[in-house]
Amino acid sequence: MIYLAVGSNLGNRKKNIEKAKYRMIQNEINIVQSSNYYESLSWPDIKNPKFLNIVLKIKTHLTPLNLIRKCKEIEKSLGRKKAPKNSPRVCDIDIIDYNKKLIKNGLIIPHPRLHKRNFVLLPLFELDKNWHHPVLKKHIKKLILSLSNEDIRSIKQI
User: Fold this and answer.
1) What is the CATH number of the domain that holds 30?
2) pLDDT tens-digit profile of 105-118?
3) Alpha-carbon distance 144 to 6, whole Å?
4) Domain membership of residue 8 as a residue range
5) Which residue of 16, 98, 139, 140 could cross-link 8, Cys pair, CB 3.0 to 4.6 Å?
6) pLDDT digits over 18-44, tens only?
7) Do residues 57 and 30 make contact, with C-beta atoms less than 8 angstroms apart?
């Protein structure tokens, strides 16, 4: 399975994510399942607007590189601008897992920080209770339990 994380913390966050999903369908990315929405604090600067995030289970014939290119095009089409790392954004799409492949050629899959992110782990758990991290070889429950209490308390399903 292929999993994408989609987030937004500018403008109408839910609408931005729904538009991203619609554009994916238009671009040969078939959405198999979508998690609920999760709201979390912006990181690393919690003064920035809160994020709304989902995880999508998808199918596509696009290669990982073409998939990330397509995702970056969708982000731009929704109004994402070049900005410093971790700045607020209209739309952010990351490949979390691509059929358990390990890729390190400019594009790193699985996402290198996914195991530390409450806004990825909780919606991913919702979609796949038996998911294992392809590099760390850890069950998703173990990864969730390794999050800090603050990380668990600071996110809510909407």
Assistant:
1) 3.30.70.560
2) 888 999 989 999 99
3) 19
4) 2-157
5) 16
6) 999 999 999 999 999 999 999 999 977
7) no
